[in-house]
Amino acid sequence: MKLNITCIPGDGIGPEIVAEAKKVLDKVATVYGHEITYKDILMGGASIDVHGIPLTDEAIADAKSADAVLMGSIGGDTTTSPWYKLPPDKRPEAGLLKIRKALNLFANLRPAVLYEELADACPLRKDIIEAGFDMLIMRELTGGLYFGERRTIEENGIRKAIDTLTYDENEIRRIAIKGFDIAMKRRKKVTSVDKANVLDSSRLWRKVVEEVAQDYPEVTLEHMLVDNCAMQLVKDPAQFDVILTENMFGDILSDEASMVTGSIGMLASASLNDSKFGLYEPSHGSAPDIAGKDIANPIATILSAAMMLRYSFDLDKEADAVEAAVKAVLNKGYRTGDIMSEGCTLVGCKKMGDLLTNEIV
Length: 361
Ligand code: NAD
What we know:
The protein has helices spanning about 15-30, 45-50, 55-65, 90-100, 125-130, 170-185, 200-215, 225-235, 245-260, 300-310, 315-330, 350-360, and strands at about 1-10, 35-40, 70-75, 105-115, 135-140, 150-155, 160-165, 190-195, 220-225, 240-245, 270, 280, 335, 345. It folds into two domains: about 1-110 and about 275-360, Isopropylmalate Dehydrogenase (3-Layer(aba) Sandwich); about 125-260, 3-Layer(aba) Sandwich (Isopropylmalate Dehydrogenase). It is built from twelve helices and 14 strands. By secondary structure, it is an alpha/beta fold. The mean pLDDT is about 95. Bound molecules: nicotinamide-adenine-dinucleotide (NAD). Nicotinamide-adenine-dinucleotide binds near residues 75, 265, 285, 288 and 338.
């Protein structure tokens, strides 16, 4: 298969971690007989330094012409970097918002997996995580409260702020279809999270999700109120497979779910549109404090590349191989500094990339 990938190395540790992900992808291509073409584009601070803006139209066109985009991370030290003296629309993060909009990325996926070997980093009690957990939060990214009309007015001398939460059935249907499609590649369970006891938008959400579920008889659907879900995530995380939810609930729940794994350098993410196209990036930032020192953990980016193989290219076997390589290397006791624990072997970013590459045979 031919894989046409645009890469955004970005800023800080971005170029280091993307280089390791490419190494792993190249090995996958060799072992499984694929051909990968990469094109690097500039975004964030790297683009500001060259073009004066965080993302050019040419870079967007390059991203659009690819099958998928693999990104490191963008941004610098927000207190000392000259990038943050620019107006907000010229700063590094503006490039990220612009590319998400240009590529119509409405579905955000964040897996939260407990690796047995890293269980000590999990803040939950041992008896709660005995069974491990492996869930994926599917969050609607372009609608709801964050994109509704808002204003602040004054009525009879009283200040009043208004935010509106709107979803139409098409917005709900397309994210629900993504959620069920992805559940079919996993343990075939969808937990749809809403606040249907209070909100009309949630009642419509629930109805449309049930309609979509008709087309997926193999998938078990359950509904859960968002307040209960926030509790269940810390009480019994193993019950979840795919959590499907709207923008604001997903924003909060995905951070909660990732924190219970305990390791920022391990958290992958993907943002998808209604084709197979996606932008894949680690959940963490550009870590300017450790950039250029060869100590960053590349695993979140490498797991994001595995998601790319699975969701943009339908290469499940290859994605499984990358995920298995991560487990094997952790099992052999190799750790980067952020996940280091007693008795393990400390390795740098490049060495971790090499170890993972060598596991794919
Ligand atoms: P951060 O995630 O970059 O760093 C937080 C802490 O975690 C730091 O101590 C860092 O060294 C550590 N860390 C992060 N990733 C690591 C890794 N892979 N291996 C080892 N340690 C790691 O968050 P921050 O410091 O708040 O932000 C730094 C910059 O990143 C800012 O400019 C911010 O805007 C940007 N940012 C970008 C994205 C993105 O590109 N999607 C996301 C979040 C933050």
